[in-house]
Amino acid sequence: MIAPRRPRFLLPVVLVLLAAGALLPLPAAAAEEEAAAKVSLELYYESLCPFCSRFMVNRLAGIFEDGLIEAVDLRLVPYGNARVGSNGDISCQHGPYECLLNTVEACAIDAWPDLDVHFRFIYCVEDLVVKRQYKSWDSCFQKLGLDPKPVTECYKNEKGHKLELKYANQTDALVPPHRYVPWVVVDGQPLLEDYENFEAYICKAYKGTSPPKVCEGLVHPPMALETVVARNGVTYNSGGIKLATAEDEGRDSKIKMRLPDDDN
Predict the structure, then answer these.
(1) Could you tell me if 78 and 105 are in contact, meaning their C-beta atoms sit under 8 angstroms apart?
(2) 239-252 burial code (b ≥16 CB/10 A, e <16)
(3) Beta partners for 199?
(4) Where is the secretion signal located (predicted)?
(5) Which end of the chain, N or C, is less packed with Cβ atoms under 10 Å?
(6) Neighbour-count burial for 46-79, b at 16+ CB within 10 Å, e otherwise
(7) CA-based Rg of the chain, rounded to a whole angstrom?
(8) Are 208 and 37 in contact (CB under 8 A)?
(9) 12-36 pLDDT, tens per residue?
(10) What is the pTM of this model?
(11) Tens-digit pLDDT profile for residues 53-89
């Protein structure tokens, strides 16, 4: 018996389709490529540091508004200039209330790993710090419609303390060591006193195929970090805490995240 002859055009068509498919990036691969292109951005801070709170509220929150967040892998480390004693207890630069809020914010990161969620909560708390109303920090649960239980249980028990010890280890492992807060690190590079120019460093470090549009209007960092002249926005070793507001400085906050109306 003679087998039926296959159409001659079938194999070339299959080869063409396979070749075309090979040229098309798979959605998963494309997503992995974009994720790999993201620039690491780390903020080492403490909750009652006035420069930290103003940086977070007036500057850092802006990356959620201008689209730069799509190019960033942001990590918050709420510990700052605290110290761990020989008995494992933690003392904070601005006193016990700062230790409390550091732990609260660490617990929020743990309870809500989604950056959009825990950043909004921490932003709400730090906005109250700027306004000198930080003792009302727990009002942020209701404002954002968040269940307080996971954070409350965390900071009241050993879990919160362990989270702070973890952040202590991360902060103490910095190379070079942090010298003040806020301490901003972009793509492994500490920005020293030029931290307010962090967006320009992110755009310079971004290796993706489609840079965020905001990068088009940013000038590359104008000088080497080693020669940056010290600015005022740095907490070295302030003793007491006087939390200046944006209004005290004669200017309005540059960034306002979309919190519920009763926050205004």
Answers:
(1) yes
(2) eebebeeeeeeeee
(3) none
(4) 1-30
(5) N
(6) bbbbbbbbbbbbbbbbbbbebebbebbebebbbb
(7) 24
(8) yes
(9) 444 444 444 444 454 565 556 666 7
(10) 0.77
(11) 999 999 999 999 999 999 999 999 999 999 999 999 9
